[in-house]
Amino acid sequence: MSAETFHCPRGPGPGSPHKPPFDGVATWRDDGTCSYCGSMSPERFFECVEAGNELVPTDKNYKVYVRHPNPIAGKITIRQSANYQPGPDWIEATPEVCKQYDWTPGEGGPYWVLPSPEGPIETGKFYFQHLDEAGQVRFIELLNAKRVKLAYPGHFYVAPFFIKFSAPADAG
Ligand SMILES: [Zn+2]
User: Fold this and answer.
1) Taking all residues of the chain, what is their mean pLDDT, rounded to a whole number?
2) What DSSP string runs through 142-153?
């Protein structure tokens, strides 16, 4: 994790009376996401778009999902847990198991977990609030150049909040 902090644009502004971690002060986590809102960083977002990875439209004008190759595809990790044993493949999250899979149980427990291989595609999210003005312009330019690959239905349900689509001017 980078020690450098910034104000997540989705959080309350500087000087808010909220206590950490609800004051919007954030760091970029090791996986490149914002510690306040979980958005991937603008750098990573543009990297994904320019590499031709798909964006998945949402019904929010400030959010897209980003499908990208999973850097740890095939690695066995724990992504599911329960406080009962849902099936025979589930194992109890003993301290050894937690250590082996680098998994931290929440409060309570005991827990059962399902170690399984990471898939080839990972889906992250990006909040457009994380784009500054230059970033907004850069994204619009990529859109206009048709370099943004949109997953089904192939268009935004609602335009990102900083974009206004307009009809062509009537030349007549
Ligand atoms: Zn954020």
Assistant:
1) 92
2) HHHTT---B-TT
CA of 39 to the centre of ligand 1 (A): 5
User: What CA–CA distance (Å, rounded) separates 80 from 139?
Assistant: 35
DSSP string of 38-51, one letter each residue: -PBPHHHHHHHHHT
Compute, in angstroms, the gap from residue 127 CA to the centroid of ligand 1. Answer: 7
**Residue 2's pLDDT is what?**
55
Question: Looking at residue 35, what DSSP letter applies?
Answer: T
Q: How far is CA 58 from CA 61, 79, 130, in A?
A: 8, 24, 17
Amino acid 107: pLDDT: 81
Residue 1 has pLDDT above 70, yes or no: no
In the structure, ligand 1 is a single-atom ion and the residues with CB under 5 Å from it are 8, 10, 34, 36-37, 39
Average pLDDT over residues 145-158: 94
- The CA–CA distances, whole Å, from 94 to 82, 85, 86, 102, 103 equal 13, 13, 16, 12, 10
Provide CB contacts within 8 A for 10, sequence distance 6+: 24, 34, 36, 37, 39, 127, 129, 130
